[in-house]
Design brief:
Blueprint (H helix, E strand, L loop, with lengths): L1 H21 L8 H5 L4 H18 L5 H21 L22 E8 L8 H10 L3 E5 L3 H7 L8 E5 L7 E5 L3 E7 L8 E7 L5 E6 L21 H10 L5 E6 L8 H5 L6 E2 L22 E5 L4 E7 L10 E6 L1
Parallel strand pairs: 1-2, 7-8
Antiparallel strand pairs: 1-12, 2-4, 3-4, 5-6, 6-7, 8-10, 9-10, 11-12
Helix pairs in contact: 1-3, 1-4, 3-4
Length: 328
């Protein structure tokens, strides 16, 4: 039995080592390599457990035993290099607000991918009523969801609604005036993004980019970038470089990014991740305890401070909603 367990551990270890090393090629235009970038938390935990089990069970040490230990250790180091930025072992990128005096410089945002085929609107509406955010960004909005969310217009008089039937519809509701809203299609005519100029209570303007790029995989009957460069975020980066006002980027980015914002957007030291130094806040998959990673993001420029960051309860979608309070 012990010999059988060791063989199983060898097989698992080799798979983990290969996946961890191949994940370094995350930016290659091969979607299967990119997908290895997602389960870094799982690869790290499994590699560590496999290493400890192998050391405790193995009694005869040969060259291949040491090679296995080295390989697993390399995998642990590779994944921890990415993950450490989302622990309290590193400094935060977006400072926590101190000495908050008034409320005119602050605002709140709730973002949620409701999953187009989810037909439970009450949970998200109850969360909105509970949190009372100033801005609401909802993704995967089809005609059904658009109709159900229209009840928000009583308390949220400003909005941009661009639903569609291919899982990339998006709506933005706001208590704050939307001075200007541009609907853009960065890489796909069926995948909208918004650029909104929002007026805060103090009269200052901020720019809010709402984005939901396609994932690095092919889904039947859904838009994707098969055969194209995945450059939606790079196009967004050009807009951010030319920004006029303090800027926020938020949405389901379909990417874990692992603090690679500069590479994905081709911006350098412009956008900062509110998660860095605070935690993973895994927003996907709400239906699985084991396969979870952060897909829904809030990135801000240097003018912002963070007051609160929360992952909210399940709403029937495969994504958890995210809630953030920011101060300009």
């Amino acid at each position: 039995m012990k010999k059988f367990l060791l063989i199983i551990l060898y097989v698992i270890a080799i798979i983990l080592i290969v996946c961890s090393i191949l994940s370094l090629f995350r930016n290659a235009e091969i979607r299967y390599l990119k997908m290895l970038d997602f389960p870094r938390i799982q690869l790290f935990i499994l590699s560590l457990l496999t290493l400890l089990l192998f050391i405790s069970l193995n009694k005869k040490w040969h060259l291949h035993s040491y090679l296995l230990i080295v390989g697993l250790s390399i995998g642990i180091i590779i994944n921890s290099t990415f993950l450490i930025n989302y622990t309290t072992l590193v400094s935060v990128e977006v400072p926590t607000v101190k000495d908050l005096k008034g409320s005119e410089d602050q605002f709140s945002l709730l973002l949620s991918n409701v999953k187009m085929f989810n037909r439970q609107e009450q949970p998200i509406l109850e969360l909105i009523n509970l949190k009372k955010p100033d801005l609401i960004l909802v993704m995967e909005v089809d005609k059904w969801w658009d109709e159900k969310l229209k009840v928000l217009s009583k308390e949220y008089p400003f909005s941009q609604r661009t639903p569609n039937q291919v899982a990339y519809g998006m709506v933005l509701y706001s208590k704050l005036p939307l001075k200007e809203v541009e609907v853009d299609y960065l890489t796909n005519e069926k995948v909208p993004s918004f650029k909104s100029t929002i007026v805060l209570a103090n009269g200052k303007n901020i720019t809010f980019h709402s984005i939901h790029p396609v994932p690095p995989t092919h889904f039947k009957n859904l838009p994707d970038n098969k055969g194209q460069e995945e450059n939606a975020l790079k196009k967004l980066g050009k807009k951010i470089k030319d920004r006029e006002f303090p800027t926020i980027v938020a949405g389901d980015l379909n990417d874990v990014i692992w603090s690679y914002t500069d590479d994905l957007t081709e911006t350098e030291n412009i956008l900062f991740d509110v998660r860095v130094g605070r935690g993973f806040y895994n927003s996907y998959n709400a239906n699985s305890l084991l396969m979870r990673w952060p897909l829904d993001h809030i990135l801000v420029t240097k003018e912002f401070r963070l007051k609160k960051l929360e992952r909210l309860p399940k709403i029937g979608s495969d994504h958890f909603p995210m809630y953030v309070e920011l101060v300009l």
